[in-house]
Amino acid sequence: MNSSFLRFSDIDPGEIETLIQRAVAIKAGDHEAPLAGRSAVLMFEKPSLRTKLSFWVGIEKLGGRPVYFGPEEVGLGKREPVADVAKVVSRMSDVAIIRTFAQEVLDEFAAAGSIPVVNALSDFEHPCQALADAQTVFEHCGKLRGVRVAFVGDGNNVARSLAYAVAGSGGSLVVASPDGYELDSDTLAGATDYGSELGGTVEQVRSPKEAAKGADIVYTDVWASMGQESEASARIEAFSGYQVNPELMSHAGPGAKFMHDMPAHPGEEVSEGMLEHPSSIAFDQAENRLWAQAALVEALLK
Predict the structure, then answer these.
(1) CATH code, 241
(2) 190 in the same domain as 156
(3) Global pTM?
(4) DSSP per-residue codes, 197-264
(5) Which of 32, 169, 174, 251 satisfies CB 3.0 to 4.6 Å to 144 for a cystine?
(6) Which residues in the chain land under pLDDT 50?
(7) H-type alpha helices, 119-198
(8) Is residue 182 assigned to a domain?
(9) In this predicted structure, what is the pLDDT of residue 226?
(10) Is residue 2 part of a domain?
C-alpha cells in the first residue's frame, strides 16, 4: 500500500483481504506491541466518538502512544499554514491521523510532511470506515468476493469509500439515491475500474427496493452529514421513501444484514429500533473501527 492512507484506493485491491485478516487476528489477540516507542498524533477539526475512541484504544493496544488535538487546538490553515504544521508534527511523531473538512488539507499535509498520514474523515472520503465495513462483511459473510451490498441514501463520503472497498474486494455495490444526491460519475467509474481484476462493480439506481433485492448487506447513513445542517429539512423531503426499515429488509436476500456507520437518526434514514433489529450488525461494525485501524497503522509503520 501507499505510505499514507488518504483515499481507500491507496490500498492495492490485492491487499484488502490481507489487511482485513490481520485486523481479525489482532481482534483475536494476535499481537504484542508492534508500536512500542511510536507516537500517533490525532488532529481532529470535527468532533467524534467512534473515530477518536477507536484510534486511541487501538494504538494503545499495540503499544503506541496517542496524542490528541481537538478542534479548538488545530486550526489547520487558519492558526498556522498546513505545511508548517506537517513539518513540525513529522519531527515529533510517527504518524498523523487527521479528521478534517477538506480533502485538500490532507493532501497538502502529506505532501509537506515526512510521516504517514491517515484520513480519519474528510468531506470527500471516509476510508477508515470503509475498511471496518469490509472487515464486518468478511466476518458475517465469510468472504468479500461476490458479496452484494445495497447502500440506500446520499452519495456522500461514506458511500464513496464504500464503493472502492466493495468493488476492490470483488463485490458488487448498488447505490439507491434520489435525484440530485447520487454517487458522482467519477467514483462510479473509478471504483469499478479499481475492482475490475476481481470482477467488482458499482451501480447507481433510484429505487431502494431495486438496490436491496437479493442483497447480502443493506447499508445506510445519515441524510445530512456534519456541515450540512442547514440542508436538513430539504434533505428530509428529498429522501422521503429512502428509509431502511424491516419492510425494506424483506426485499433483501435470505439472512441479509443491516449496517449503519452511526450516529443514526431514528425516524429518518432508519426506523425506530433498527439498530437493535435481529438483522443489525451495526455495533459489530462500530467495534471493528478499532481493529481495522490498528491493522492499518501497524502496516503503515512497518
Answers:
(1) 3.40.50.1370
(2) yes
(3) 0.96
(4) GGT-EEEEES-HHHHHTT-SEEEE--SS-TT-GGGHHHHHHHTTT--B-HHHHTTS-TT-EEEE-S--
(5) 169
(6) none
(7) 127-141, 157-168, 185-194
(8) yes
(9) 67
(10) no
